[in-house]
């Protein structure tokens, strides 16, 4: 007879731990599964992962959390995409927008239609057909309604910039109201049974904790998945050489823009994340080409506004846990792996891990094949994001520092090589079920890096060139006209979701 698990223990709070508790407390209501969070009072949020992708909205919906209340509580702003400064060359930037770019024509992909139009003399950029790019350019914003017949608005999509510490507080409060138990303690020992499963936890307050299943949210320490169960990290530092980050917070002195800025630096890149009450700043760098002191100086010399916090240096290893789920333990967040936040995927991976876990939710028999299927999904998710991040380094044309010269000579995975080869021929991409980065994203970055296919689909030659030109001009103008009627991003926030004092 099938026997379900009765309890889940989440070890570690922070963003990952309380996201898990929030989602599970909603998904499992009615299942009589007890959820407990063991949270150490000594550990604070590290401050990486304050910029998100549109799946943050899916997480809020799945957790039954009101979007505007969440924004008010976390001093959040909206995000339409990422502006990449100085990646292809110094003093040149491009935009990677969320949402769809353009409209398909008679079943043909818009990018192919646009490529054809270039050969007919069209001078409009690819971003002229992105409503998100146009909104970002003019600092405009509206929230897309759940249903709309307006294709321009329907093509938009947004995420959030948020305060990670405030997110933790908000989700913790929510979970406690929902009946999640919180134990304030630090795990001192993990005891395994004869089968190698986690049997119980010992804490510094002499409390012993038992559970059917454990979720490891202990960050880089990975107390359960690595120290107790021995599952190592598969390192990807040969593809992604940055291994440290320094973060600071600054006072906000300008209205927040609706996008993240990722600026290439001498030995890596820096981020700027505008919130309602402050700005988050960081520099991801390679210690082989830059000392901590140099990184701190670079970051502090390039920020705007009064510096509010002392620099915090965070060492990291890029890679993924060889098994994200092993026996009765799931590694979540930094315990599961780390990919630098260039495309703001940290919180997305937490949510995606929880979604995959819910689809493979175990019984007490902990079927190995079920666990294996889950881990295969996670392998694909991490590899897809890894390759997309490597793409930014591999296509950069900078050679002004040793770091960027190294990036041009760096090996790239065969999977990315194959993707680039296919794209360069006819602008096609392999489509894999569950991919997060769509063709819109790949085309935006590759166009920003001046990479175009050699050919477009030949059947598009059947379209009348003048009609095609008129349609594209009309669509680009419609996007501009629509955006011009939108409120400023800061005005929208002040009217609908201003941060709680």
Features:
3 domains; seven-stranded mixed β-sheet; FAD/NAD(P)-binding domain; alpha+beta
Structural summary, described in words:
- The chain is an alpha+beta fold and 501 residues long.
- It folds into three domains: 7-77 and 162-234 and 318-384, FAD/NAD(P)-binding domain; 97-157 and 393-490, no CATH class; 244-315, no CATH class.
- It is built from 16 helices and 21 strands.
- It has helices spanning 14-27, 55-62, 67-74, 110-119, 131-137, 151-154, 164-177, 223-228, 292-302, 346-359, 368-394, 402-409, 414-426, 439-448, 465-484, 489-496; strands at 7-11, 34-39, 77-79, 81-85, 93-97, 159-161, 181-184, 187-192, 198-203, 208-210, 213-216, 233-235, 244-251, 260-265, 268-274, 278-285, 312-315, 319-321, 325-326, 329-331, 337-338.
- A seven-stranded mixed sheet has the order 5-4-14-15-16-13-17. Strands 7-2-1-11-20-19 form a six-stranded mixed sheet.
- The longest helix has 27 residues, at 368-394.
- It is globular and about 75 Å long.
- The termini are far apart.
- The model has no long low-confidence stretch (mean pLDDT 95).
């Amino acid at each position: 007879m099938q026997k379900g698990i009765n309890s889940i223990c989440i070890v570690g709070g922070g963003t990952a731990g309380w996201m898990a508790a929030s989602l599970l407390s909603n998904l499992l209501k009615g299942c009589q599964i007890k959820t407990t969070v063991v949270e150490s009072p000594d550990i604070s949020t590290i401050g990486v992962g304050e910029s998100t992708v549109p799946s943050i909205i899916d997480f809020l919906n799945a957790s039954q959390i009101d979007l505007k209340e969440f924004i008010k509580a976390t001093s959040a702003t909206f995000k339409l995409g990422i502006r990449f400064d100085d990646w292809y060359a110094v003093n040149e930037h491009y935009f990677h927008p969320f949402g769809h770019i353009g409209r398909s024509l008679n079943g043909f992909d818009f990018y192919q239609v646009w490529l054809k139009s270039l050969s007919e003399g069209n001078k409009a950029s690819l971003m002229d057909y992105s409503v998100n790019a146009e909104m970002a350019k003019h600092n405009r914003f509206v929230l897309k309604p759940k249903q709309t017949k307006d294709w321009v608005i329907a093509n938009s999509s947004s995420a959030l910039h948020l305060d990670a510490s405030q997110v933790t507080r908000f989700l913790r409060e929510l979970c406690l109201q929902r009946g999640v138990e919180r134990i304030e303690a630090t795990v001192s020992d993990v005891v395994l049974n004869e089968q190698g499963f986690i049997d119980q936890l010992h804490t510094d307050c002499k409390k012993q904790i038992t559970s059917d299943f454990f979720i490891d949210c202990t960050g880089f320490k990975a107390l359960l998945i690595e120290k107790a169960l021995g599952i190592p990290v598969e390192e990807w530092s040969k593809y992604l050489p940055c291994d440290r980050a320094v973060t600071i917070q600054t006072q906000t002195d300008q209205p927040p823009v609706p996008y993240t800025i990722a600026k290439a630096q001498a030995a890596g890149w820096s981020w700027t994340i505008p919130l309602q009450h402050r700005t988050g700043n960081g520099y991801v760098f390679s210690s082989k080409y830059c000392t901590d002191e140099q990184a701190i100086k670079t970051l502090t010399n390039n920020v705007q506004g009064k510096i509010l916090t002392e620099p915090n240096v965070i060492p990291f290893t890029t890679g993924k846990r060889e098994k994200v789920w092993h026996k009765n333990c799931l590694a979540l967040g930094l315990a599961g792996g780390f990919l630098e936040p260039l495309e703001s995927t940290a919180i997305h991976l937490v949510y995606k891990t929880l979604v995959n876990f819910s689809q493979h939710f175990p019984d007490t028999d902990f079927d190995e094949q079920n666990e294996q299927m889950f881990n295969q999904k996670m392998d694909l998710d991490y590899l897809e994001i890894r390759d997309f991040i490597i793409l930014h380094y591999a296509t950069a044309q900078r050679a002004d520092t040793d770091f960027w010269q190294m990036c041009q000579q760096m090996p790239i995975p065969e999977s990315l090589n194959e993707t680039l080869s296919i794209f360069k021929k006819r602008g096609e991409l392999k489509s894999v079920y569950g991919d997060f980065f769509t063709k819109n994203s790949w085309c935006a970055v590759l166009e920003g890096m001046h990479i175009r296919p050699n050919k477009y689909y030949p059947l598009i030659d059947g379209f009348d060139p003048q009609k095609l030109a008129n349609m594209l001009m009309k669509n680009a103008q419609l996007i501009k006209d629509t955006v011009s009627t939108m409120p400023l991003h800061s005005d929208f926030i002040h009217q609908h979701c201003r941060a709680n004092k």
